[in-house]
Write a structure and sequence with these properties.
heterodimer; A: alpha+beta; OB fold (Dihydrolipoamide Acetyltransferase, E2P); 2 domains; 6-stranded mixed sheet; 5-stranded antiparallel sheet; 8 helices; 19 strands; B: mainly alpha; MetI-like fold; 14 helices; globular
Chain lengths: ~350, ~280
């Protein structure tokens, strides 16, 4: 059941500037689609429009060939998991799940059976009668998941559901979500600004910036073949180093593509080592090139406060045209300076 | 514990004891006076423990202040006005907290004005209006006064605003109607605030003197606080029956104290916070 957004425009009441304009997006049936981008890029707004919590100014949203653009949130048969869980504080775990099912006009027996099933599935059976304030953060998020699952929705919408959890629990919940996705065989739409979450869980990543889709593809495509400078610099830890050239084009290379030794045929330049950070497996170095700072990730140990010549092999170079989109390799002219997409 | 800390601790205790005595003494005085004899109640120097107990003061107070009639009025009018006030103000506050609509700012301003304007300024026009509408001395006239209170709406609106928006959104995705959202999600979430306002409203109606006194010309809808006036005049010549007056006051206060004991925790939560996590 694909979710299709067509020519979506969104203007918030009281403002004139659209936050989203001309958005076209197809979320494949049964995919784990992650909307990824920095804050303010429109990813949450997009998700909330699918959920029906925000009005769509222009355009249509269809799920399973049904136009849901103006439908009430409760009639869309979608379930949402919120960042702060949004479980009803005055209802028990069971009550939280029951509340939605009652509105769905199921019989008492059906409701009881459904509650039993999802509590088992999420490992909450023993907490059925607990109140939310007696639960830990992870358990609360699990209640929110149980509540979503209980409705057997056409799609799960998740708005940064892991960002309130501590690092360890987040890793654990991440693998639980992947398992859940495999079991459910339903569409997941997941919003996050955390590329690790996106790369680990998604089957499909949609990178967004300023209300526009910058690139859509599998995690590997996004990581290996960024289509433009924004994606190249947003994805990766840290993002790509990009030089603006005298002719207005750009070249880029990943911090891991940078080497401290190489041949004369490689692209190379001079730089001073500013800082080095030991990260366990490798090092992260920051260099001053005279045209701006660049970052290198390497397992080689470099002497601090030294001057270096740095090399990038042809295979590790990325070429971008004046519009900042990826293009065919060209002859590299003079360097103008280091470029950052977010500045 | 250092000496400095000890001195602080002692000072703290002394201060608390002084405050305790200051607050509790009027209650104590009312209570013991209510069981004193007519002369002992006005004796000088005063006695701090009654020499003999006159529980018949209570029966006298009940009879002379006509507790049957005025008490019935007090209960009916306080409960009724509180219910009406809470019903209308809850819905108004919910609207202000949740919806955007034309003229919201203007309405909000009007509502705030109600908080600033004292009753003494508007009672005369209201009296004239009621008298022309032939509403004086009717229960309806009293209840009309309390279909609306800027203070209560403002307080509850702020409480509703504190409820995370996601809770409402989750309910909407759960297919809940607007009424279901309000009564099953929002109201329980602001329960301590509701209970506090119900209590405060009930107390102010129960103790209310000004409006009843100004809007009535006979005893038909008058309440206990006004009836208390009758008690001071029943003593002997030159001596007011303070003992009976105090007995009446104890009976007037008792329901509030009992109510407070029950709602104590909720009120603290509403004022100190931690109401909603």
């Amino acid at each position: 059941m694909p979710i299709i957004l067509k020519d979506i425009k969104k203007i918030y009441p009281g403002s004139k500037e659209p936050v989203i304009e001309g958005l076209n997006l197809t979320i494949k049936d049964g995919s784990f689609t992650v909307l990824l981008g920095p804050s303010g890029c429109g990813k949450t707004t997009t998700l909330r429009m699918i959920a029906g919590l925000e009005d769509v100014t222009e355009g249509t949203i269809t799920v399973d060939n049904t136009d849901i653009t103006r439908m009430e949130p409760g009639d869309r048969n979608l379930a949402m998991v919120f960042q702060n869980y949004a479980i009803y504080p005055h209802m028990s775990v069971k009550g939280n799940i029951e509340f939605g099912l009652k509105n769905y006009k199921m019989t008492k027996e059906q409701i009881a059976q459904r509650i039993k099933d999802v509590l088992e599935l999420t490992g909450l059976t023993e907490f059925a009668n607990r109140m939310p304030n007696q639960l830990s953060g992870g358990q609360r998020q699990r209640v929110a998941l149980a509540r979503a699952i209980s409705k057997s929705p056409k799609a799960f919408l998740m708005d940064e559901p892991l960002s309130n959890l501590d690092a360890k629990l987040r890793n654990q919940m991440r693998s639980e979500l992947i398992q859940m996705f495999k079991q459910m065989e339903t569409t997941f739409v997941y919003v996050t600004h955390d590329q690790v979450e996106a790369l680990t869980m998604a089957t499909d990543i949609v990178v967004m910036h300023n209300g526009k889709i910058m690139q859509q593809g599998s995690p590997k495509e996004i990581y290996r073949n960024p289509q433009n400078i924004f994606v190249a610099q947003f994805i990766g830890d840290p993002g790509m180093n990009v030089f603006l050239l005298d002719d207005g084009n750009y070249i880029g290379f990943k911090p891991r593509g940078l080497r401290s030794s190489g041949s004369d045929r490689d692209f190379s330049f001079e730089a001073d080592l500013l800082t080095s950070e030991f990260l366990g497996f490798d090092y992260q170095y920051t260099f001053e090139t005279g045209m701006g700072r660049i970052v290198m990730r390497s397992i080689d140990e470099l002497e601090p406060d030294n001057h270096y010549r740095l090399y990038v092999q042809d295979a590790d170079l990325f070429f971008f045209d004046k519009d900042q989109n990826v293009c065919e390799p060209f002859a590299i002219g003079g360097l103008k300076g280091v470029y950052h997409a977010d500045e | 514990m250092s000496i400095k800390k000890r001195i602080f601790r002692v000072l703290e205790c002394v201060l608390l004891i002084i405050l305790f005595v200051m607050f509790i003494f009027p209650f104590y005085w009312t209570l013991i006076t209510s069981v004193k004899g007519l002369y002992e109640a006005v004796a000088y120097p005063p006695t701090f423990w009654p020499s003999e107990f006159h529980f018949e003061n209570y029966a006298q107070a009940w009879k002379h202040a006509d507790f049957a009639h005025f008490g019935k009025n007090s209960i009916f009018m306080s409960v009724g006005a509180t219910i009406i006030l809470m019903l209308s103000c809850t819905m108004a506050a919910y609207g202000f907290a949740r919806f955007e609509f034309k003229g919201k700012k203007g309405l909000f301003f009007l509502m705030m004005a109600d908080i600033v304007i004292p009753a003494q300024v508007i009672f005369l026009p209201i009296f004239v209006m009621y008298s022309k509408m032939k509403l004086l001395n009717t229960y309806a006239s009293y209840f009309f006064l309390f279909v609306y209170s800027g203070g209560v709406i403002f307080f509850l609106r702020n409480a509703f605003k504190q409820v995370p928006a996601e809770l409402v959104e989750a309910a909407r995705l759960d297919g809940a109607s607007e009424f279901s959202v309000m009564f099953r999600v929002m109201l329980p979430a602001v329960k301590p605030f509701m209970i506090t306002q119900i209590m405060l409203s009930f107390i102010s109606k129960w103790n209310g003197y000004f409006w009843i006194q100004t809007l009535t010309t006979n005893d038909h809808i008058r309440t206990l606080p006004i009836a208390m006036n009758r008690l001071s005049s029943i003593g002997e010549e030159f001596i007011s029956a303070w003992n009976v007056t105090m007995a009446g006051n104890v009976m007037l206060m008792a329901p509030l104290l009992i109510l407070y004991i029950f709602a104590n925790r909720q009120i603290k939560v509403a004022f100190i916070g931690n109401g909603i996590k």
